[in-house]
Design a protein that fits this description.
The complex is a heterodimer. Chain A is of the alpha/beta class. Chain A has 19 helices and 14 strands. Helices cover about 60% and strands about 5% of the residues of chain B. The longest helix of chain B has 24 residues, at about 95-120. Classes of the chains: A alpha/beta, B mainly alpha.
Chain lengths: ~650, ~150
């Protein structure tokens, strides 16, 4: 990655448009930005990180909420006025030019600045020169935000960098992709755990149980099938047999249907005859009730004459009066008639009444009355009897005629029956047919029941088979899972070993590179040795002292810087990181020897080295001699005292140092 | 007057009575009781003027007097015969008189009844036919004599 251009628009002190073009020859990779403190060197320095990753500003800027727009503008702007702030960084990576541009719009409201909108664009330049939108992921891959801080940093941080082992460890692990490898291994371990869980879940005797179930159901199904379909004594065979027999019986009955109908007819006629005969018997009973009264018609004329005689006698007074003798006796005893006539004994009325009394006969009177009554009834009954007798005799005659007719019919039918030869016993056959029908009905019910059982068991069998199949598949999967677990186990072990080897070798290599770089940067030959332990903590020992003592804490800032630079350079070399190294006041703690060495050696390790220098860091002319061929671009920043605006002028202009430009 | 206890027929006639009555459930004879046979025989005897008194040695009881009283028409029928014969109402008070006359007529009439039914195989139907003839006869006569009573 090589930064080609930085465009500032209303960024911090840089009010207006400011361009810093770094593009130059391929062999030149040093860019120098000279400025006094407070002119805008740090603003320019942090604009690059801010453009890439908005959150990469220093803590003190964020904590104090330092504005990123030009303050002079705010002071002079009118109410509601808008200002766009933008930083664009154009860089080359892998032969392609990319542009990252970040901006925001500020509005002045009541003497305050309000950020209205923010935006970020990332573009790629095509062969034809047109810029097209590109995924910001490419930027992340080239210069991840996590490592940005190690390539774009304040040189004062080097000692912190060297001494803060955790950060170094983290930085190195990221650069060497150790974290990624460990993540991959951890993921593989999780996969193993999941696989093992899966294996454990499958370790049951379910398959055996299901097999037993399938076998039992299969036996049931076979047995039921046998019950149904056995050709000898299965239910269906029996059903067929019964049906066959019934059909045979029906055929016989049908064959003799006409003949048998004669028998039925005979039976019917016989029944009718019986009925008629019974009717005749009933009529005879009724007739006897009437004939026993034969005396009625015989006595009728006598009854008439007797009745007439009695009436005559009565009219002539020759019959005893209808006065009860007892009643007359009572009046005689009372000596008074009901008309009041005195009936004392010896009186004439008494004599008359007594004589009269003697003529009376209650019995005769009763007999005569009863006789009269009876004779009247006899007369009536005689007439009634005539009708009843006539009807009954007619009824009887009709029945006798009917009986004769039926007998005649019966004779005819019987003669026809006698002509039939070898007729089977149809009633018996019909009974047999009924029995067979009952058997068939019973068998059909049983077949239906067994069939239902069979269907149910068959279904259960299929379900069990499916479950068994599933279980066996699952077992197979478990076996497969076991294999996968084993494979994962092997791979994990191999990866772990490889990673440990890699880490060890990488650390060793890093240590070697570090020492090599340190030697190239400054180190006294074979005196100091840099050590990097497993946690990437740096230590420095010397042959001249006890080699177990770490000399780094007591080293000068310059030597510490060198150690830090060595580590960064070694990492850059080892990981072939393509990011430029951008340093703010890199040489503040270093002496001329170190600076010379750094200028001579560091450009070899970085694709681009951008240095933001205070005047004191570039006072030695030797520096330009050493770095001159590699200087890609050089700018000097200056600031207008009146406007407060910082501008950049290409080249080295030491005349701007230590004074404000009027 | 002492009440009569029994009704008598001749010994000879007893067999006829048995034959005409038949078995209790039999439908071959037209009569259900000796009383009914006696009544018919008495009336047949009266109609044919055949009064044959029973000789004391030859009589046999056939049913109790009270049997006559059990049927409200039986005694009046015999009384009608007596009345028609004697023309004396007071004879009605004399049960012996009534019985003697009735027995005489029955004795004379039983043979006529037997003769009438002898050639008829089905005596029940034969009796019904005889009754029908008699009924037609008497009712037709009655209609002729009393046209207003129809």
């Amino acid at each position: 990655m090589k930064i080609l251009e930085i465009k500032l628009s209303n960024w911090c002190q840089y009010q207006g448009e400011h361009n810093f073009s770094f593009a130059d020859g391929p062999d030149k990779n040093i860019v120098l930005i000279h400025a006094d403190n407070g002119i805008g060197k740090s603003s320019l320095f942090y604009s690059i990180a801010w453009c890439f990753y908005e959150t990469a500003l220093p803590d003190k800027w964020v904590k104090n909420d330092w504005p990123l727009y030009p303050l002079p503008w705010l002071q002079r702007a009118n109410e509601g006025e808008l200002l766009k702030t933008e930083v664009e960084v154009i860089y080359e990576h892998g032969g392609i030019n990319f542009s990252a541009a970040r901006s925001f719009i500020t509005q002045k409201k009541q003497n305050q600045a309000t950020i209205l909108t923010r935006s970020f664009t990332f573009m790629r330049r095509e062969i034809d020169g047109n810029w097209v939108n590109e995924e910001a992921a490419i930027l992340h891959e080239t210069l991840p935000p996590s490592v940005l801080g190690y390539f774009v940093f304040d040189a004062e941080k080097i000692e912190h960098f060297v001494n803060q082992s955790e950060k170094v460890k983290d930085f190195v692990r990221k650069l060497l992709d150790i974290n990624e490898a460990e993540k991959a291994i951890a993921h593989l371990d999780n996969v193993q755990i999941d696989l093992m869980r899966e294996i454990n879940r499958g370790l049951t005797n379910q398959a055996k149980v299901l097999k037993d179930e399938v076998e039992a159901l299969d036996r049931n199904v076979v047995q039921l099938k046998e019950n149904l379909d056995n050709p000898q004594n299965g239910l269906r065979a029996k059903h067929k047999q019964f049906r066959s027999e019934k059909d045979a019986v029906e055929n016989v009955i049908l064959t003799y249907k006409d003949q048998y109908s004669l028998i039925a007819e005979q039976k019917k006629i016989e029944d009718e005859i019986d009925k008629i005969r019974q009717g005749i018997v009933d009529d005879h009973v009724k007739l006897k009730n009437l004939t026993q009264r034969m005396y009625l018609p015989l006595i009728f004329p006598v009854a008439q004459r007797s009745l007439q005689f009695l009436n005559d006698k009565k009219q002539k007074g020759e019959l005893p009066k209808d006065i009860k003798k007892r009643f007359v006796n009572d009046r005689i005893n009372l000596k008074k008639c009901i008309c009041g006539t005195d009936l004392s004994p010896g009186s004439k009325p008494f004599a008359i009444i007594s004589e009269f009394r003697d003529t009376l006969s209650d019995e005769l009177s009763d007999i005569a009355q009863n006789l009269s009554d009876s004779l009247i009834v006899i007369q009536e009954k005689t007439k009634e009897l005539k009708k009843r007798l006539a009807d009954l005799l007619k009824h009887l005659s009709d029945k006798k005629n009917m009986l004769d007719q039926k007998n005649s019919e019966l004779r005819t039918v019987r003669s026809k029956i006698q002509e039939i030869k070898d007729m089977p016993d149809i009633p018996q056959l019909q009974i047999k047919k009924e029995q067979l029908e009952n058997e068939i009905e019973s068998i059909v019910r049983t077949i239906t029941k067994i069939q239902l059982q069979y269907d149910e068991e068959f279904k259960k069998l299929n379900d069990a088979k499916q479950r068994l199949e599933k279980e066996l598949s699952r077992q197979a999967e478990i076996d497969e899972t076991s294999k996968m677990w084993q494979l994962a186990n092997i791979v994990s072990a191999a990866l772990n070993k490889t990673l440990e080897d890699y880490k060890s070798k990488a650390r060793d290599f890093l240590e070697q590179q570090c020492n090599k770089t340190a030697k190239e940067l400054f180190w006294r030959e074979d005196v100091f040795t840099i050590h990097i332990n497993e946690d990437y903590v740096l230590s420095v020992t010397s042959r001249e002292t006890n080699e177990s003592i770490n000399l780094l804490p007591g080293m000068s800032m310059g030597e510490t810087h060198v150690a830090g630079l060595s580590l960064i350079a070694a990492l850059a070399r080892q990981t072939q990181a393509k990011a430029p190294l951008i340093m703010d006041t890199p040489f503040a703690r270093l002496g001329p020897a170190h600076i010379t060495k750094a200028l001579s050696e560091c450009p070899k390790y970085f694709e681009q080295w951008i240095l933001f220098l205070q005047p004191s860091e570039w006072q030695n002319n030797n520096y330009r001699k050493i770095a001159g061929r590699k200087i890609q671009k050089e700018y000097t920043l200056k600031r207008d005292n009146i406007t407060g605006i910082t501008t950049a002028e290409e080249g080295y202009h030491p005349e701007y140092f230590g004074k404000m430009v009027e | 007057m002492p009440k009569r206890e029994k009704i008598y027929i001749s010994e000879e006639a007893h067999g006829f009575y048995e034959m005409l009555k038949g078995a209790a459930e039999s439908l071959s004879s037209p009569f259900q009781s000796f009383r009914d046979i006696f009544l018919v025989a008495a009336i047949f005897g009266y109609r044919n003027n055949a009064w044959v008194p029973l000789r004391p040695g030859e009589r046999k009881d056939i049913f109790a007097w009270i049997t006559l009283e059990n049927d409200k028409h039986a005694l009046p029928i015999l009384q009608a015969l007596v009345l028609d014969k004697t023309k004396e109402p007071k004879d009605l008070l004399d049960d012996d008189k009534v019985a003697e006359i009735a027995e005489g007529y029955a004795n004379g009439g039983i043979k006529i009844l037997i003769e009438k039914l002898s050639n008829i195989p089905n005596k029940l139907e034969g009796a019904a036919l005889i009754m029908t003839e008699l009924l037609n006869e008497v009712i037709d006569e009655d209609s002729e004599n009393n046209p207003g009573d129809q």
